[in-house]
Design a protein that fits this description.
elongated, alpha/beta, 7 strands, about 325 residues, binds magnesium ion, seven-stranded mixed sheet, binds uridine-5'-diphosphate
Length: about 325
């Protein structure tokens, strides 16, 4: 059996504190799995510098000079974690058979890589790394992260619970990923949309080995919001529901105003003020929701996602 050529894609943003350690750890691990005949000898590791402001790129360049199994990619500015991953994957799609994306901070247990490769050999086209134990995360991080997955799933985004961006993808899957033309790539939601046979590997999330998180709360919230709005028009539909509800309440109030007017229970001017106010605010909200529905449709179309993906054909 031919061994798969594996490319490990590591996005790096201001990771000077840990990069050398990450390199030596991954390098040693690679040597081990190459020796055990799990991956081809020409498998490589690709560090993508996502517009770091520290010495990250200098370190990557230095590593590339010492070691020709290392590839360095430098983005022109900070494009964000997801785009950094995409850059490494798309650039080398033709040169490798399977791809694993992993954070630079060694929080994802690299020992899961072996299981991922084994599952890939057994035929899985996508292998999701799923965090089993999060006890190394702070209470807040754990709570916010887990709520994130629950809210996403409730809104109909097909995320895999507790899976971040530690995953293996076959080249075939990556080719299909290329047909998702949206700029805002929310990989955790998109990869499950691609389909194909998939599997999971559970690992324990470790502590960041050095440096600090590049995802402070504000960025985390923005990321979650991006994820929701790139997948779901549910928030917009909520406006419509609310509008219909408002309109119905307004109608009841309108009836009451009329009734009060007829029985003469009002001061002059009250009816003519209250009636248009309630009626129009109720119908306004409903109309806004309706417009939202159409904007939602435009938004779905504008993304230009593929309508289907053919896995294979027989007797072509
Ligand atoms: N990262 C990146 N660009 C960014 C932010 C982060 O490439 O704009 C990388 C970062 O270097 C790391 C990975 O994405 O390899 C995950 O970031 P981090 O570990 O800080 O996130 P956390 O694990 O705290 O959620
Ligand atoms: Mg991390």
């Amino acid at each position: 059996m031919n061994l798969s050529r594996l490319l490990l894609v590591v996005p790096c943003y201001n990771e000077e504190a840990i990069l050398n350690l990450t390199y030596s750890t991954l390098k040693a691990y690679y040597a081990g799995i190459k020796e055990r005949g799990l991956i081809a000898a020409d498998s490589k590791i690709c560090f993508v510098n996502d517009g770091s402001r520290d010495k990250t790129w200098d370190i990557i360049e230095e590593l590339c000079h010492q070691d020709d199994t290392i590839i360095g990619v430098k983005l022109s500015r900070n494009f964000g974690h997801q785009s950094a991953i995409m850059a490494g994957l798309e650039k080398y799609i033709d040169d490798f058979d399977c791809f694993i994306t992993i954070d630079a901070d060694l929080q994802d247990d690299i020992n899961a890589i072996t299981s991922m490769i084994e599952k890939h050999r057994e035929g899985a086209m996508v292998v999701y790394g799923v965090r089993g134990d999060r006890s190394s995360d702070s209470w807040f991080k754990r709570f916010s992260a887990e709520s994130f997955y629950v809210v996403m799933q409730k809104m109909g985004v097909p995320v895999v619970f507790n899976h971040a961006d530690f995953r293996l993808m076959d080249r075939r899957v990556l080719q299909e990923l290329g047909n998702f033309k949206e700029i805002n790539m929310f990989l955790r939601g998109i990869v499950p949309l691609i389909g194909f046979r998939n599997d999971k590997v559970v690992y324990n999330r470790l502590e960041r080995a050095a440096g600090e998180t590049k995802y402070p709360l504000s960025k985390m919230l923005l990321f979650a919001w991006n994820g929701i709005t790139s997948f779901s028009t549910f928030p917009m539909r909520l406006v419509l529901y609310f509008g219909v509800f408002n309109f119905m309440v307004a109608m009841v109030i309108v009836a009451y105003i009329f009734f009060s007017y007829i029985i003469g229970h009002t001061v002059p001017g009250w009816t003519s003020t209250m009636l248009p106010l309630t009626f129009f605010s109720g119908s306004n909200m409903m109309a806004l929701g309706l417009i939202g529905e159409y904007i939602g449709k435009i938004y779905e179309e504008v993304k230009g996602r593929p309508r289907y993906i053919i896995e294979k054909t027989v007797n072509e």
